[in-house]
Write a structure and sequence with these properties.
Elements (H helix, E strand, L loop, with lengths): L6 E4 L1 H9 L2 H15 L7 E6 L2 E6 L2 E8 L2 E9 L7 H17 L1
Parallel strand pairs: 1-5
Antiparallel strand pairs: 2-3, 3-4, 4-5
């Protein structure tokens, strides 16, 4: 079971942000997400934010996400403009996590 690929779910805000990126930047994000799906994490840069909430870091772009069972849920994407991830992004991802966890 541990060798199964992750299931990827881009929630609407994350999908919208990704689709608005220029094609070259989209390709970089998609490549990192695909590496996460297949658990090839050597070149993927992620960071734990709070509890189960993490962020995928691709250049100046960030995607908050969390894992439930074998699924990675990408919550929102945003351009990093400051040193710290905005608290509102972490809190929103935390709320989505709680809702998703209670529905499983």
């Amino acid at each position: 079971m541990e060798n199964q690929p992750e299931i990827i779910r881009l929630l609407p805000f994350a999908e919208k942000y990704l689709k608005e990126l220029p094609p070259a930047q989209q390709a970089m994000v998609v490549a990192d997400i695909d590496d996460m799906r297949t658990r090839s994490l050597a070149a993927v840069h992620t960071k734990q934010l709070s509890g189960p909430i993490r962020e995928l870091i691709v250049g100046h772009h960030r995607f908050t996400y969390f894992r439930l069972r074998n699924t990675l849920y990408f919550v929102r994407g945003f351009r990093k403009k400051t040193v710290k991830t905005p608290l509102s992004e972490i809190e929103y991802a935390g709320k989505v996590y709680k809702v998703m966890k209670s529905s499983i």
